[in-house]
Amino acid sequence: MKQIFNKILLLILLSVMPLAALAQQTLIRGVIMDGTFNEPMYGANVTWQNKDGRIKGGMQTNFDGSFSLSDVIMPGDMLVVSFTGYTKQTVPITASQTVFNITLKEETVALKDVEIVAARKAETGMLNINERDITTASKKIDMSELEDLAVSDATDALQGRVAGVDMVATSGAPGAGMSIRVRGTTSLNGSSEPLIVVDGFPYETSISSDFDFSTADENDYATMLNISPSDIKDITVLKDAAATAIYGSKGASGVLLINTKRGTVSKPTITYAFKGSMSVKGRGMKVLNGDEYTTLIMDEFFNAGRTFDPEAYPELANDANNLYNYYNYGQSTDWYDEVSQLGWTQDHTIAISGGTQKAKYYASISYYNADGVVIGEAYNRFQTRVNVDYNISEKLMFKASMDYTNSSTDRNYVTFLKSTTNVLSQAFSRAPNMSVMEYDELGNLTDNYFTPATDLSGAYWTGSYTNPYNPVAMANEGFYNEKINRTIPKLSLIYRPLNWLRYQFDISFDIHNNKSTAFVPQSATGRPWTERTINVARDQDSEAFTFQTYNKLFFTPNIGEKQNLQIVLGLNTYDVRSKGARFVASNTASVKLTDPSTGGLVAGTSENLWSSSTQERTISSFLQIQYSALDRYILGFAGSYEGSSKFGDGNRFAFYPSVSGRWRFSSEPWVEDFAKKISLSEGSLRFSYGESGSSRALSTYASQASYGTYGTTYLGNIGTYQSGLQLSSLKWERTRSFNAGLDLGFRDNTINAHLEWYYKNSDQLIQKNRTIPTSTGFASASFINNTGMKNTGWEFDADWQIYRDKDWTVKVSGNFARNENELKDDLETSGSWTSNTVSGYYPTLLLGGQPLGSFYGYEYEGVYLNTDQTIARDANGNKIYTYNSKGQQEPVYMRFNYPTTDYTFQAGDAKYKDQNHDGNINEQDVVYLGNGMPLFTGGFGFNVRYKAFTLNTFFNFRYGNDVVNMAKANLESMTGFGNQAISVLRRWRHEYTEDEIAAGNVPGDLLPRACFSSSTTYNTLPSSRYVEDGSFLRFKTATLSWTMPKDWLQGTFISDARFYLQVSNIWCWSKYEGMDPEISISNATNPGYDYANTPRSRDYTLGINLKF
Amino acid sequence: MNKILTFALLLGTAVSFSSCNDWLELKPESSMPADEYWQSESDVKAAMTGIYAEVRSSALTRFIQSEMMADAMISGLTSTEAAFTQIKEGNITSTNTYCQWTSYYKAINQCNMLLDYADKALQADPSFTVKQCEIYKAQARVIRAWMYFYLIRLWKDVPYVTEAYYNDEKARDCAVSSQMEILNALIADLEAVRKEGYLPFSYSNTSEAANKGQATMYFLYVLLADMYRMQGAYATDQATQISAYQNCVTLCNSVIESGQFALVPVYKTTAENTTGLSDILLDAQTHADSCFYVLDQTSVQNCFNELYVKGNSAESIFELQAESYEAVSGFWSKFVNGGRPFMMVNKTHLTDDWFTATQNNLASYIWYHDVRRTFSFLMNQDICWKIGGSSTLSMDYIASTAEYVKNINVYRLADVYLMKAEALNQLAWMNGEDINLLSEAYMSVFKVRDRACATDATDLGTVTIDYWNQLNAGETPAFTANDLNCASMEQFILEEEARESVWEGKRWFDLLRHAERQNANAASNINYLLNQSIYSAAEGKYIVVRTNWLNAEKRYLPYPHQDVLLNELLDQKPAYGVE
């Protein structure tokens, strides 16, 4: 392949080289005169150009206005003379004339109002098609609409703006990405994030899934777009398969096309934008104070039948004779308050752009810095970008761009252990009677953090984020830092030999270095120095080098005025190599030595010393045809033929065709009259059918088996074995999708509405680590094409410019989408039904006919108020009796998981619905409880302008999704020494008599009893108790901006100035009881689990935009 | 225009299938791709080593499975494991960790791979001889048969796969074959290996480890003898039984008479001049009243070291070589675990029923005690001494992890003697209680008992001091029909097998074979097994266990859950319910 590219390159080079290089050179000379003052002109530009406008030579005139140039004269050559403020002159160069005396005339341009009428062009990937002629489902957002939003990531600004695109932030921490779903999830194990294409090249948002570091999980697959939002010109979302077809498998989950700003023909313009924000921490969960906590623990002990021994638990003894414990365990600490702070963000961007007919440029430098509301969480980004377009001649041009990003994300060390958590989880559960800083034996406060080696909840050990530590010490002293250095140079050569033919060669490199370091200090864990759990320093490097090329041929033949035809044919190659290594050392000599290379103990396990190297390639050829006739009938065809190195020989290539069409009925002669009557300016019907495929779920060498070795010798030799199945029959995941759309525009398109309906049918979905019969000798196959799923949905999107005049503009816009997912067949997954017996752990069941991301568990029915209620009842509600060995009738009490667990329910225990009335709560009573994916998503906003003031508001919502409030499950379990939510003050404390119940003396939201030790109570089983409605409506932003009148700026070097104030996350309407109902959906099979991540903060932003 | 055509042509070439396909052919850099394996003898050798390493790494599972339902292994006092406890409580489910057969089929598949691919390496590597190749293949066949032998004794009817499964294009589902079908096939396969004669009798003149740690012809003989013994017990027609037992005896004799193996001796001295033994003497009893011996403690310790610590003893026929603690660490953590084992020896049962103290019967001989009791456990320890003991036979010293590099015994010569005795006794039974055969059987057992210094209390009651003196002098006593009978001899051998191979992964199979034995006592053979339920079951659960065993199906494990779920051709055994 490389050879072929070399040949192509060579050909291009040859084509631009002077073909008659050996022919004789001719000298031409002359003088340029100023027509106004009639004197020689100094500094005028004189160029010798060929017939295509390519410059063969050029110079600036001397003081006497003279010039001389020498080259070979070719037919069609021209001499071009120009000077700013003067009319350009073009004179043909022929062999007969070698002396040119030219007089330039001053240009007198009278500016007048010009009304520019141009149809908005939309990027559909390869072809430039009028937005009104688009046949597929796509939506373009101009960043100028969003540029005031104080966000670090452009996708954050897009949230809720595009129908059918569900975006959820993975957490409120700075630098946390967004997980994006375009029309639902279509893969079980692969990423369902859309493809991001920046300036024509796919942009990888995460390093290959092979870099499955032991700690990496869903957050790492969230999309973090490291592009400064102010550099972005527009974003187009391609939703249906017909639109994404030319991107092949990479675009199977939708495509976000991002165009960055480029230079325009203008004098140099410098802009400066500043945004500064203050963030106030979100609503936390209210937990018990020190005294309430101690009482709860006593209650737990009592109900578990334990006696409280002050000697065994001096932490709870409150013994004034022991001043050390008295003070260190006699506090009432609000840990959430202790680990949070005011967050500050600053964002500066300076950009310079401009250009001439020949060359256009855009360059920017930006700096973004955010300190989060949780101590230790921060995000820092430095970025430069240069875009240059250069016309070598009318037939040949190149575009070059260079993008460099340096970012640094700080998170808490515990986030390194589990990416869905941070110190907040410990802050909420840490005993509130404990002190932050240590008191000495005399009761004096010291400078040391209070971190006993073992406290009531146990002791910290490596690898567990749930074991106790001092969250303040952890936030301050421990760290987890991720630094990304990324350079993306791109080059495009465009050659137009004929008006109807264009050839484009694009090449792009992406050098992505990622270094993460983490450190857990002894001062946070309190463990003795001899243990390997203290001062653990980690250093992990990964790098990816991506090399991509495109060869594209565009045909735009002129086939008459009433018809239009565009064809693009191309070839894309993609090659990515990734390497990674990890090094972990423990027991470094000091808490200040946080780098593993400074010494320490290293254990040679795969967790501590690890490296990996992978390579992946894909190649695809594609064809896209767009035909329109009479401005009414538009047809599109696209197809791609793609191969990936992930598959075995026989199944490597796949073909994905698509067709689409649009019928603009409003232009039909027989509708026109009617259309005028109802002021219909646009009315179109669209349809599309397309197929797409995906291999994202697969690891790099998925289809290949390899031989592994045993770690120990036998008879002194190393033994080998085939370490996995060879997956020769592995195939692409395949999705067939239909789309139908209706576009309506009224009153000259001041009212627009779009309605879409789609049906996506996915097959051969790849399941990871799928178990197979063990009699084959293998317990599982790494990947198997399994069942499929269906996504059906509709989308509605409208905007209305209600009023507009010189002083006022009022606009509203909104969108609405519904997606329904359904699995075709049952999928066996690990940890299925049996996990129902484990407290606080929901089983992952993938059942046919049910949507992905469903929750299953027991139906919670409150609390057994008294012993009588724990008697099992039959379907009619009658008590069940048995006879004992003495022949006496005695009641049968409700049991849990008889005979394996066989726990008899007590008064005060959680009551689960006995679905089959057998007196036994077991897996047969497990029911569907809800789903993590929403019924509706969308957003709306209005925009009011009065003179120089503009008010912009935006709301987004998700409706009908459920959230498993794991944070609440942990904070209401009442089984251990962890602190609990204040709701546990309403716990069951005594048996209620029938009279009391009848009199309504029982609190409606009574919680089960406190009972120490989770192994003897089953109050926190996976049940509907923690499944909550996660619907919300968020008043996301309100921005008030003011543009300074032009006349105020006269005489200054500033040409434009604009100031604005913005408040984000103003209010969130939700019934959800946790901190924030916006819960990550990035894990396809387990979306919507809330582990108390950083809640979204409320940000107050001041912004300044200046133009010079 | 020409240039355009060139571009188009170039594009066309680029799209062409073959060149792209090559470009997409990527191989992992950090591991050995499967399709580049099997190119030389060293690949085959490494694969063979891999098979041994695999059966070694799964030895722990195999060991627990062959003891967990029997009476010598019970849950630890301080450490317990839920999966094991459930087995002991008679709550055997298809999801139990110890009801899985993954490790057997993994090893079987590795053997099948070697058998399918060794010839590929033979063709690719000119220095690889046919003979050498056949030696590897013969070893793989023996190991495969050995694995199946476990499967049919633990699960009865199982899928019998003899073709390698290495890629997902092959059918994953496989129906079961019957226990006896598989047993016959295994016997036929091993007989073929024996006949082909490639399998060596020894691999090295210098390394005992090489000869004991790889499948030799002797291992094949013993394995085959064990299979014949099973065939003799399970077969329903007498002709098969007779030929099976005869084959078993012949094979045992081949091993015994080969001169390559010998029981590690334990020396004894007469006690006349030894003081300090008065505590076990009855009133009015003197040393002269009976044959009274004491053991030479050095030789006891030496025997223990040779068999259970150092390994590769003269007595050993096949044992898996540990070589490092990592390779057998599972044994340490399950059965030693610093003195808090998860599974421990049923000390009470062994003391009361197996290693009964001397009866001090003046008409008989007296031993201080059976050395095998010492080997099984020490009075103040819960751990099995054979498994956890260090080279020091000290009462309070258990092996540390660093010292724990112990081979895993598979067959010893003592097993062969007992195997032979069992077969001879059954032959005698079918031959009208032939006294010569019975006498020969007793002599075979005596070899084992003599070395172990077994006490009079565990001997056949009819072996008087006169007989014993003759036996001790190396003569064969003239036993009469009054002295020996087949039914009691059968019981005697069964108990002797228990004593000799405490915690060596044989007890359950002995119990099961006895229960299923189709001989003259077929109807009551089950009783012995049922009576063991009181010792095998966890406290209060023996009725459950006993009831389970009354159902012939429940004497075998349920099919693994995963297989029942995913293998369309496999249904759970009815006794374990429908899944």
Could you characterize the architecture of this molecule?
The complex is a heterodimer of chains A (1108) and B (579). Chain A is mainly beta and 1108 residues long. In chain A, 9% of the residues lie in helices and 44% in strands. Chain A contains 15 helices and 57 strands. In chain A, the strands form 14 sheets. Chain A has a 22-stranded antiparallel β-barrel. In chain A, strands 11-16-17-14-15 form a five-stranded mixed sheet. In chain A, a hairpin with a 6-residue loop joins strand 45 (895-896) and strand 46. The longest helix of chain A is centred in the N-terminal third of the chain and has 15 residues, at 2-16. Chain A is globular and about 130 Å long. Chain B is mostly helical. Chain B contains 24 helices and ten strands. In chain B, the strands form four sheets. Chain B has a three-stranded mixed sheet with strand order 5-6-9. In chain B, strands 2-8 form a two-stranded antiparallel ribbon. In chain B, helix 3 runs antiparallel to helix 6 (102-124) and helix 17 (413-430) packs antiparallel against helix 18. The longest helix of chain B has 25 residues, at 130-154. The mean pLDDT of chain B is 87. Strand 33 of chain A pairs antiparallel with strand 1 of chain B, so a sheet runs across the interface.
